[in-house]
Amino acid sequence: EAAQATELATLIPLQYGCERCVLAGDPQQLPATVFSRGDAGVALARSLMERLLQAGWTGHLLDTQYRMHPAIATFPTRWFYQNQLKNDDCVRSELYRPAFHRTGPPPPLLGPYCFVDIAEATEERDATTASLSNPKEAAFAMQLVEILYERYWKAYDRVWHLGILTPYRAQMRLLQQALDQSGLIL
Known about the structure:
The chain is mainly α.
């Protein structure tokens, strides 16, 4: 991910006399990752890819995406890629859509994405690690897992994969505890 690597990190392999360098990454979304704060962090917060593109080198847009549901791809296509990003046939196919996008009772249980406002949910900060958690969000996530389990995994008797993403360790621990206590066979 050359757009996310700092300029200095990208220069390290170049010191070994390579004849050609291909930088692959997406400078439209993720900047170089720098953990340093202050002036040093600002000075390092650019990738070699970004520098070269700003200097007039040409990049090549890989214009077909193969992973996102077209409804999810709509925003980045418009916002980052001036409507140049196309959806491959594989993601437009009915076979790509999970059962919970297609079956109901109508309407289906979930679309390709949804936003849920958990009323009165408040974050709690772990005193030791400063990591955040939110018990009401975790409880909602567990209710959703239980519904999915009952309506789809158990009913269709097949293997399903589920991912719950959180950037916080405390929330991850809270979710793991809730999953362990749920009694679901996952």
